[in-house]
Specification:
Blueprint lengths: L8 E8 L2 H12 L2 E7 L5 E8 L2 E7 L11 E5 L3 H14 L2 E2 L4 E2 L3 E7 L5 E7 L2 H6 L1
Parallel strand pairs: 1-4, 5-9
Antiparallel strand pairs: 1-5, 2-3, 3-4, 6-8, 7-8, 8-9
């Protein structure tokens, strides 16, 4: 598998009710390579990360508890929490709709800003947890 260095980049987040179907289609139809896939306790895929040269796409299970997921999600991966805080301050100063954040989870230090069309922009610095899944 190819290791992606995630210092700065833009990584699409797609929300779907069929992670396996979308991931398999992208692998077969477009030639993306699977980095990792995670399933819930019942075996239903919740997340998949697919690679292409220089980038990745994260496919995520859309949950009933996420009614405001929006039509698309875009991940902006930054170097560290200070960079996230700087973008947060800029977004807040511009009056952007921000929910939640910034907050630290097992995966990242992040916040989410929603644009006028309802797309969610997840600004984050990874904690290193995903690197364990990628290796």
């Amino acid at each position: 598998m190819t290791k992606i260095e995630t210092v700065q980049g833009v990584f699409p987040l797609l929300w779907t009710n069929d992670v396996d179907g979308i991931a398999d289609w992208a692998i077969i139809a477009l030639g993306l390579t699977e980095s990792w896939r995670a399933a819930d306790d019942n075996g239903k895929a919740e997340h998949a990360e697919l690679l292409w040269p220089g980038g990745l796409v994260s496919i995520n299970l859309k949950r009933d508890s996420m009614p405001d997921t929006g039509p698309s999600g875009i991940g902006l991966c930054l170097e560290d929490s200070a960079a996230v805080d700087a973008v947060y301050a800029r977004a807040q100063a511009s009056g952007a709709n921000i929910t939640p954040g910034p907050e630290k989870t097992m995966v990242a230090y992040s916040f989410t800003a929603t644009d006028a069309d309802g797309n969610q922009w997840w600004v984050h610095a990874e904690t290193g947890f995903l690197d364990k899944l990628r290796s």
